[in-house]
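[Help] Beginner question about ligand-bound structures

Sorry if this is basic. My supervisor gave me a protein sequence and a SMILES string for NAP and asked me to "get the holo structure". I don't really know what that means in practice or what format the answer should be in. Inputs are pasted below exactly as I got them.
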Amino acid sequence: MLAYHEGLSRGGISATTSIPIGTVKSHVTRGAEAARGQEVDVKIGVIGSGTVAQTLAAGFIRHGHAIMVGTRDQAQLRDWAAANPKALLGSPAQVAAYAEVLVLAVKGTAAAAALRLIGAPALQGKVVIDATNPIADLPPQNGVLRFFTTLDGSLMEQLQLEYPAARFVKAFNSVGALRMVNPQYAGGEPTMFICGNDAVAKQAVTGILSQFGWESADMGGVTAARAIEPLCMLWCIPGLLRNEWTHAFKLLK
Ligand SMILES: NC(=O)c1ccc[n+]([C@@H]2O[C@H](COP(=O)([O-])OP(=O)(O)OC[C@H]3O[C@@H](n4cnc5c(N)ncnc54)[C@H](OP(=O)(O)O)[C@@H]3O)[C@@H](O)[C@H]2O)c1
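Answer (accepted):
No worries, everyone starts somewhere. Holo just means with the ligand present. The predicted complex, written as C-alpha coordinates, is below.
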Protein backbone atom coordinates (compact mmCIF):
# COMPACT_ATOMS: atom_id res chain seq x y z
CA MET A 1 0.00 0.00 0.00
CA LEU A 2 1.21 3.44 -0.87
CA ALA A 3 -0.03 6.61 0.72
CA TYR A 4 -0.76 9.63 -1.37
CA HIS A 5 -0.76 12.99 0.39
CA GLU A 6 -1.52 15.91 -1.86
CA GLY A 7 -4.26 17.89 -0.18
CA LEU A 8 -6.95 15.99 -2.05
CA SER A 9 -10.50 16.15 -0.89
CA ARG A 10 -12.95 13.37 -0.20
CA GLY A 11 -16.66 13.98 -0.48
CA GLY A 12 -16.12 17.69 -0.93
CA ILE A 13 -14.42 18.11 2.43
CA SER A 14 -11.07 19.67 1.68
CA ALA A 15 -8.34 18.19 3.80
CA THR A 16 -4.99 16.51 3.44
CA THR A 17 -6.13 12.97 2.82
CA SER A 18 -4.21 9.73 2.83
CA ILE A 19 -5.40 7.55 0.00
CA PRO A 20 -4.45 3.89 0.01
CA ILE A 21 -3.38 2.86 -3.47
CA GLY A 22 -3.16 -0.86 -3.98
CA THR A 23 -0.82 -2.62 -6.36
CA VAL A 24 -1.50 -1.30 -9.81
CA LYS A 25 -1.64 -4.08 -12.35
CA SER A 26 -0.57 -3.29 -15.84
CA HIS A 27 -3.13 -2.13 -18.37
CA VAL A 28 -2.32 -5.25 -20.35
CA THR A 29 -3.54 -7.44 -17.52
CA ARG A 30 -6.61 -5.31 -17.02
CA GLY A 31 -7.37 -5.40 -20.74
CA ALA A 32 -6.99 -9.15 -20.80
CA GLU A 33 -9.36 -9.52 -17.85
CA ALA A 34 -11.89 -7.31 -19.59
CA ALA A 35 -11.51 -9.31 -22.80
CA ARG A 36 -12.31 -12.48 -20.85
CA GLY A 37 -15.50 -10.82 -19.63
CA GLN A 38 -14.25 -10.54 -16.05
CA GLU A 39 -15.19 -7.58 -13.90
CA VAL A 40 -12.33 -5.12 -13.83
CA ASP A 41 -11.93 -2.91 -10.79
CA VAL A 42 -9.60 -0.14 -11.81
CA LYS A 43 -9.03 3.33 -10.42
CA ILE A 44 -10.84 5.79 -12.65
CA GLY A 45 -10.20 9.50 -12.99
CA VAL A 46 -12.81 11.75 -14.53
CA ILE A 47 -11.69 15.12 -15.88
CA GLY A 48 -14.62 17.52 -15.79
CA SER A 49 -17.38 18.81 -13.55
CA GLY A 50 -20.37 18.95 -15.91
CA THR A 51 -23.31 16.60 -16.40
CA VAL A 52 -21.26 13.96 -18.20
CA ALA A 53 -18.48 13.94 -15.61
CA GLN A 54 -20.93 13.73 -12.72
CA THR A 55 -23.05 11.01 -14.36
CA LEU A 56 -20.15 8.78 -15.38
CA ALA A 57 -18.37 9.25 -12.06
CA ALA A 58 -21.52 8.21 -10.19
CA GLY A 59 -21.82 5.22 -12.55
CA PHE A 60 -18.27 4.12 -11.81
CA ILE A 61 -18.96 4.35 -8.06
CA ARG A 62 -22.11 2.28 -8.51
CA HIS A 63 -20.03 -0.38 -10.27
CA GLY A 64 -17.49 -0.51 -7.47
CA HIS A 65 -14.64 1.45 -9.02
CA ALA A 66 -12.48 3.81 -7.03
CA ILE A 67 -12.98 7.24 -8.51
CA MET A 68 -11.45 10.69 -8.45
CA VAL A 69 -12.96 13.65 -10.25
CA GLY A 70 -10.75 16.48 -11.47
CA THR A 71 -11.77 20.08 -11.93
CA ARG A 72 -10.12 23.48 -11.86
CA ASP A 73 -12.64 24.54 -9.20
CA GLN A 74 -13.81 21.90 -6.71
CA ALA A 75 -16.58 24.19 -5.42
CA GLN A 76 -18.50 23.33 -8.60
CA LEU A 77 -18.79 19.75 -7.34
CA ARG A 78 -19.73 20.46 -3.73
CA ASP A 79 -23.34 19.23 -4.00
CA TRP A 80 -22.40 16.24 -6.18
CA ALA A 81 -19.62 15.23 -3.82
CA ALA A 82 -21.95 15.46 -0.82
CA ALA A 83 -24.28 13.02 -2.59
CA ASN A 84 -21.35 10.78 -3.62
CA PRO A 85 -19.14 10.58 -0.53
CA LYS A 86 -17.01 7.74 -1.96
CA ALA A 87 -15.63 10.06 -4.62
CA LEU A 88 -12.32 11.84 -4.29
CA LEU A 89 -11.88 15.29 -5.74
CA GLY A 90 -8.68 16.81 -7.03
CA SER A 91 -7.12 18.94 -9.69
CA PRO A 92 -6.87 17.46 -13.20
CA ALA A 93 -3.16 16.77 -12.58
CA GLN A 94 -3.90 14.99 -9.28
CA VAL A 95 -6.53 12.87 -11.00
CA ALA A 96 -4.10 11.85 -13.73
CA ALA A 97 -1.53 10.83 -11.12
CA TYR A 98 -4.13 8.75 -9.26
CA ALA A 99 -6.01 6.99 -12.04
CA GLU A 100 -5.26 4.06 -14.31
CA VAL A 101 -8.02 5.05 -16.73
CA LEU A 102 -9.03 8.65 -17.42
CA VAL A 103 -12.33 9.91 -18.75
CA LEU A 104 -12.15 13.21 -20.61
CA ALA A 105 -15.50 14.93 -20.08
CA VAL A 106 -14.92 18.61 -20.79
CA LYS A 107 -16.25 21.10 -23.30
CA GLY A 108 -14.89 20.21 -26.74
CA THR A 109 -13.36 23.62 -27.29
CA ALA A 110 -11.47 23.17 -23.97
CA ALA A 111 -10.32 19.56 -24.45
CA ALA A 112 -6.77 20.44 -25.50
CA ALA A 113 -6.47 23.04 -22.72
CA ALA A 114 -7.73 20.54 -20.14
CA LEU A 115 -5.10 17.96 -21.17
CA ARG A 116 -2.37 20.59 -21.08
CA LEU A 117 -3.22 21.06 -17.39
CA ILE A 118 -2.16 17.42 -16.98
CA GLY A 119 0.79 17.35 -19.35
CA ALA A 120 2.31 14.69 -21.58
CA PRO A 121 4.39 12.83 -18.94
CA ALA A 122 1.33 12.06 -16.79
CA LEU A 123 -0.67 10.97 -19.84
CA GLN A 124 1.95 8.52 -21.06
CA GLY A 125 0.41 5.07 -21.44
CA LYS A 126 -2.90 6.13 -19.89
CA VAL A 127 -6.15 4.92 -21.33
CA VAL A 128 -8.18 8.08 -22.02
CA ILE A 129 -11.89 7.55 -22.64
CA ASP A 130 -12.77 10.54 -24.78
CA ALA A 131 -16.42 11.55 -24.35
CA THR A 132 -15.98 14.98 -25.88
CA ASN A 133 -17.54 16.41 -29.01
CA PRO A 134 -16.09 19.23 -31.13
CA ILE A 135 -19.13 21.47 -30.80
CA ALA A 136 -18.39 25.02 -31.90
CA ASP A 137 -19.54 28.06 -29.96
CA LEU A 138 -22.17 28.73 -32.63
CA PRO A 139 -25.94 28.20 -32.59
CA PRO A 140 -27.34 25.05 -34.28
CA GLN A 141 -28.78 25.39 -37.79
CA ASN A 142 -32.24 23.80 -38.14
CA GLY A 143 -31.45 21.51 -35.21
CA VAL A 144 -27.99 20.58 -36.51
CA LEU A 145 -25.06 21.34 -34.22
CA ARG A 146 -22.05 23.17 -35.64
CA PHE A 147 -18.60 21.58 -35.24
CA PHE A 148 -15.20 23.26 -35.26
CA THR A 149 -13.75 20.23 -37.09
CA THR A 150 -14.37 19.11 -40.69
CA LEU A 151 -15.17 15.62 -41.97
CA ASP A 152 -11.49 15.23 -42.85
CA GLY A 153 -10.45 15.44 -39.21
CA SER A 154 -11.71 14.97 -35.67
CA LEU A 155 -11.09 16.26 -32.18
CA MET A 156 -9.73 12.92 -30.97
CA GLU A 157 -7.20 12.84 -33.82
CA GLN A 158 -5.98 16.28 -32.72
CA LEU A 159 -5.62 15.08 -29.14
CA GLN A 160 -3.92 11.79 -30.13
CA LEU A 161 -1.47 13.75 -32.29
CA GLU A 162 -0.62 16.09 -29.40
CA TYR A 163 -0.27 13.19 -26.91
CA PRO A 164 0.99 10.21 -28.96
CA ALA A 165 1.80 8.13 -25.86
CA ALA A 166 -1.75 8.36 -24.47
CA ARG A 167 -4.22 5.65 -25.47
CA PHE A 168 -7.39 7.47 -26.52
CA VAL A 169 -10.65 5.61 -27.00
CA LYS A 170 -13.72 7.47 -28.22
CA ALA A 171 -16.82 6.46 -26.24
CA PHE A 172 -19.92 7.89 -24.56
CA ASN A 173 -20.07 10.84 -26.99
CA SER A 174 -23.13 9.72 -28.97
CA VAL A 175 -25.78 9.55 -26.25
CA GLY A 176 -27.17 11.98 -23.69
CA ALA A 177 -25.65 11.94 -20.24
CA LEU A 178 -28.86 10.72 -18.61
CA ARG A 179 -28.74 7.49 -20.66
CA MET A 180 -25.02 6.76 -20.27
CA VAL A 181 -25.21 4.41 -17.29
CA ASN A 182 -27.26 1.21 -17.62
CA PRO A 183 -30.03 2.62 -19.80
CA GLN A 184 -33.11 0.45 -20.18
CA TYR A 185 -34.62 0.04 -23.64
CA ALA A 186 -37.33 -2.33 -24.87
CA GLY A 187 -35.09 -2.99 -27.89
CA GLY A 188 -32.29 -4.37 -25.73
CA GLU A 189 -28.77 -3.11 -25.15
CA PRO A 190 -27.93 -0.01 -27.18
CA THR A 191 -24.68 0.25 -29.15
CA MET A 192 -21.73 2.46 -28.24
CA PHE A 193 -19.50 3.14 -31.22
CA ILE A 194 -15.86 3.26 -30.15
CA CYS A 195 -12.52 3.73 -31.87
CA GLY A 196 -8.89 4.16 -31.00
CA ASN A 197 -5.42 2.99 -32.00
CA ASP A 198 -4.73 0.73 -29.01
CA ALA A 199 -6.47 -2.65 -29.01
CA VAL A 200 -5.85 -3.32 -25.31
CA ALA A 201 -7.27 0.07 -24.35
CA LYS A 202 -10.37 -0.68 -26.42
CA GLN A 203 -10.72 -4.04 -24.64
CA ALA A 204 -10.67 -2.26 -21.29
CA VAL A 205 -13.26 0.26 -22.47
CA THR A 206 -15.42 -2.53 -23.87
CA GLY A 207 -15.37 -4.10 -20.40
CA ILE A 208 -16.47 -0.83 -18.81
CA LEU A 209 -19.20 -0.36 -21.43
CA SER A 210 -20.43 -3.86 -20.74
CA GLN A 211 -20.72 -3.02 -17.04
CA PHE A 212 -22.62 0.13 -18.02
CA GLY A 213 -25.12 -1.87 -20.10
CA TRP A 214 -23.78 -1.18 -23.58
CA GLU A 215 -22.64 -3.35 -26.44
CA SER A 216 -19.56 -1.94 -28.15
CA ALA A 217 -19.03 -1.56 -31.87
CA ASP A 218 -15.34 -1.09 -32.63
CA MET A 219 -14.97 1.11 -35.69
CA GLY A 220 -11.18 0.85 -35.86
CA GLY A 221 -8.41 3.37 -35.32
CA VAL A 222 -8.50 7.00 -34.28
CA THR A 223 -9.44 8.15 -37.80
CA ALA A 224 -12.90 6.66 -37.24
CA ALA A 225 -13.56 9.49 -34.78
CA ARG A 226 -14.35 11.49 -37.94
CA ALA A 227 -17.49 9.36 -38.20
CA ILE A 228 -18.25 8.78 -34.50
CA GLU A 229 -18.06 12.40 -33.33
CA PRO A 230 -20.77 13.53 -35.82
CA LEU A 231 -23.12 10.89 -34.34
CA CYS A 232 -23.55 13.50 -31.62
CA MET A 233 -25.01 15.86 -34.24
CA LEU A 234 -27.43 13.18 -35.36
CA TRP A 235 -28.34 12.23 -31.79
CA CYS A 236 -29.13 15.84 -30.88
CA ILE A 237 -31.43 16.61 -33.84
CA PRO A 238 -34.61 15.07 -32.32
CA GLY A 239 -33.83 16.92 -29.09
CA LEU A 240 -33.22 20.28 -30.67
CA LEU A 241 -36.21 19.99 -33.04
CA ARG A 242 -38.75 18.12 -30.90
CA ASN A 243 -37.35 18.06 -27.35
CA GLU A 244 -36.79 14.27 -27.57
CA TRP A 245 -33.64 13.30 -25.66
CA THR A 246 -34.10 9.70 -24.51
CA HIS A 247 -33.07 7.65 -27.56
CA ALA A 248 -29.88 5.71 -28.23
CA PHE A 249 -28.34 4.08 -31.30
CA LYS A 250 -28.34 0.35 -31.99
CA LEU A 251 -26.38 -1.39 -34.72
CA LEU A 252 -28.45 -4.22 -36.21
CA LYS A 253 -26.52 -6.99 -37.92
N1 LIG B 1 -24.19 16.74 -21.95
C1 LIG B 1 -24.36 15.58 -22.59
O1 LIG B 1 -25.44 14.96 -22.50
C2 LIG B 1 -23.25 15.01 -23.43
C3 LIG B 1 -23.41 13.76 -24.03
C4 LIG B 1 -22.35 13.20 -24.75
C5 LIG B 1 -21.15 13.88 -24.87
N2 LIG B 1 -21.04 15.12 -24.30
C6 LIG B 1 -19.74 15.81 -24.41
O2 LIG B 1 -19.10 15.64 -23.16
C7 LIG B 1 -18.34 16.80 -22.82
C8 LIG B 1 -18.79 17.35 -21.47
O3 LIG B 1 -20.12 17.79 -21.59
P1 LIG B 1 -20.91 18.40 -20.32
O4 LIG B 1 -22.25 18.78 -20.85
O5 LIG B 1 -20.82 17.50 -19.17
O6 LIG B 1 -20.07 19.67 -19.91
P2 LIG B 1 -19.63 21.00 -20.69
O7 LIG B 1 -20.46 22.12 -20.19
O8 LIG B 1 -19.59 20.77 -22.16
O9 LIG B 1 -18.12 21.16 -20.16
C9 LIG B 1 -17.87 21.49 -18.83
C10 LIG B 1 -16.45 21.19 -18.53
O10 LIG B 1 -15.56 21.86 -19.44
C11 LIG B 1 -14.43 22.26 -18.71
N3 LIG B 1 -13.82 23.46 -19.28
C12 LIG B 1 -14.45 24.53 -19.82
N4 LIG B 1 -13.54 25.44 -20.20
C13 LIG B 1 -12.32 24.94 -19.87
C14 LIG B 1 -10.97 25.40 -20.02
N5 LIG B 1 -10.70 26.58 -20.59
N6 LIG B 1 -9.97 24.62 -19.59
C15 LIG B 1 -10.22 23.42 -19.02
N7 LIG B 1 -11.47 22.92 -18.85
C16 LIG B 1 -12.49 23.67 -19.28
C17 LIG B 1 -14.91 22.54 -17.32
O11 LIG B 1 -13.83 22.28 -16.47
P3 LIG B 1 -13.81 22.68 -14.92
O12 LIG B 1 -14.51 21.58 -14.20
O13 LIG B 1 -12.35 22.72 -14.61
O14 LIG B 1 -14.50 24.01 -14.79
C18 LIG B 1 -16.06 21.59 -17.15
O15 LIG B 1 -15.64 20.43 -16.48
C19 LIG B 1 -18.54 17.79 -23.99
O16 LIG B 1 -17.45 17.67 -24.89
C20 LIG B 1 -19.83 17.31 -24.64
O17 LIG B 1 -19.90 17.62 -26.03
C21 LIG B 1 -22.04 15.69 -23.59
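A couple of things worth pointing out: Confidence is low (pLDDT under 50) at residues 1-31. Residues 48-53, 71-73, 76, 105-108, 110, 113-114, 131-133, 135, 173, 176-177 surround NAP (CB under 6 Å). Feel free to follow up in the thread.
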